[in-house]
Task: inverse folding
């Protein structure tokens, strides 16, 4: 005969699922905050700009106008903001499966690591035909830091849910 879960264990599992989902959602929403900043200036790029690329229109409107690609797509930043979506889907759809909750925890924690490493893969800039290495000029912004922290907390909640079963 199978053991029945106690009511408090069910409530704890439900609370941990809610914590994982809320912190995962908060990690995703941090893509709209500054993810990469230049410390001594006001220059910053949001997570959306860093992940999906960013182009800027320069010149006088209608006369001399041109688009300049400032940032290309950054795969690591894209992963950092997309893995929490996968984690939330796995936590919600497969609430009773320990395997899928463990995979969701891995997705959340991997997203956190990618968010903290985002500045390491921040692209160098090409100005005209000249390559300019901008590796040391940029630092993590509050959006990337909070996204990484929120993703790791969501991963820990998902692991705690697996361990309680």
Result:
């Amino acid at each position: 005969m199978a053991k029945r879960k106690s009511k408090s264990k069910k409530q704890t599992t439900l609370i941990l699922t809610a914590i994982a989902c809320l912190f995962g959602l908060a990690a995703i929403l941090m893509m709209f905050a500054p993810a990469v900043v230049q410390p001594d200036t006001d220059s910053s790029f949001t997570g959306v700009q860093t992940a999906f690329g960013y182009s800027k229109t320069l010149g006088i409107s209608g006369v001399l106008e041109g688009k300049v690609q400032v940032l290309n797509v950054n795969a690591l930043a894209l992963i950092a903001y997309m893995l929490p979506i996968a984690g939330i889907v796995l936590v919600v759809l497969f609430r009773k499966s320990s395997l899928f909750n463990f995979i969701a925890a891995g997705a959340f924690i991997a997203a956190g690591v990618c968010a903290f490493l985002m500045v390491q893969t921040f692209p160098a800039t090409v100005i005209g035909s000249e390559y300019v290495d901008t590796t040391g000029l940029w630092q993590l912004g509050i959006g990337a830091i909070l996204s990484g922290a929120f993703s790791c907390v969501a991963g820990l909640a998902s692991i705690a849910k697996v361990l309680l079963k």
Observations:
- The chain has one domain: 7-164.
- Residues 7-29 form the longest helix (23 residues).
- Residues 7-164 form a domain with the Butyryl-CoA Dehydrogenase, subunit A; domain 3 fold (CATH 1.20.140).
- The mean pLDDT is 85.
